[in-house]
């Protein structure tokens, strides 16, 4: 099962770089740098430093919404908001193995992302969360299951995902779990990663 951490420095006590190092060290698979308000130069420097600090770790780092900066900074991939250029247009200029993910809020968007060459989609909000209310009410676990069944690429659950409700997402067929708070707000990131990993084997959070 894929664990996909998304950064938000406004919710961090330390730096983004420190958190990314910690998340990579704890075993998070993919980490998205999502500091959309930073000027281009600062975003590039942040991405480059995060890549450098985790180069010896298996985690893969993606940048939100800016394939140009992601490629220049040596990121492993890019995460495209639903209103971004198509994955196919990014694929034409990206090196082999460059990850391309797409945010999706409806089943049709998941199907389109697959057809246009995305490697994975992040689907939600599955549960209620203030940061995603502009996208409408939560899609729910049932719609997540339909999205997972409709495509072959991995579908990651996003939006209000917690240790307590993560099992429902896995049972619905999600290939992974994505979020900000589930990782950034954890008192012990290593323990949270172990608990979430257990879901892939048991379908329920380990006691």
Describe this structure in words.
The chain starts with a strand and ends in a 5-residue tail after the last helix. The chain has helices at 16-26, 40-53, 67-73, 87-91, 107-115, 140-150, 166-171, 181-184, 189-202; strands at residues 2-6, 30-33, 60-64, 77-80, 99-104, 120-123, 155-157, 176-179. Helix content is 39%, strand content 17%. Strands 1-2-3-4-5-6-7-8 form an 8-stranded parallel barrel, surrounded by 6 helices. It is of the alpha/beta class and 207 residues long. Helix 1 (16-26) packs parallel to helix 2 (40-53) and helix 2 packs across helix 3. Helix 7 (166-171) links the parallel strand 7 (155-157) and strand 8. The protein has a single domain, classed as TIM Barrel (Alpha-Beta Barrel), CATH 3.20.20. The model has no long low-confidence stretch (mean pLDDT 93).
Task: Provide tags for this entry.
eight-stranded parallel barrel; 8 strands; TIM Barrel; 9 helices; 207 residues
Unreliable residue runs: none
- Which oligomerization state do the chains in this entry correspond to? single chain
The gross shape turns out to be: globular
The total of beta strands comes to 8
Give a short account of the largest sheet.
8 strands, parallel, barrel
Structural class: alpha/beta
CATH class: Alpha Beta
Q: Which architecture per CATH?
A: Alpha-Beta Barrel
User: Beta fraction of the residues?
Assistant: 15-25%
Radius of gyration: 16 Å
Q: What average pLDDT do the residues reach?
A: 93
Task: Classify the helix fraction into a percent range.
Answer: 25-40%
């Amino acid at each position: 099962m894929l664990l996909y951490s998304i950064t938000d420095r406004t919710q961090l006590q330390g730096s983004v770089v420190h958190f990314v190092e910690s998340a990579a060290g704890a075993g998070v698979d993919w980490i998205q740098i999502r500091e959309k308000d930073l000027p281009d130069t600062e975003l590039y420097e942040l991405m480059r430093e995060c890549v450098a600090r985790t180069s010896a770790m298996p985690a893969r780092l993606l940048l939100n919404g800016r394939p140009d900066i992601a490629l220049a900074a040596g990121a492993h991939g890019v995460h495209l908001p639903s209103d971004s250029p198509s994955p196919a247009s990014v694929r034409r200029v990206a090196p082999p193995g460059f990850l391309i993910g797409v945010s999706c809020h409806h089943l049709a968007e998941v199907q389109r992302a697959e057809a246009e060459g995305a490697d994975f989609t992040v689907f939600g909000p599955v549960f209620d969360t203030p940061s995603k209310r502009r996208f409408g009410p939560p899609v729910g676990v049932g719609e997540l299951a339909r999205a997972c069944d409709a495509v072959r690429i991995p579908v990651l659950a996003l939006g209000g995902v917690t240790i307590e409700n993560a099992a429902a997402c896995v049972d619905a067929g999600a290939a992974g779990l994505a979020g900000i708070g589930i990782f950034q707000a954890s008192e012990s990131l290593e323990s949270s990663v172990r608990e979430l990993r257990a879901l892939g084997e048991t379908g329920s959070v380990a006691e």
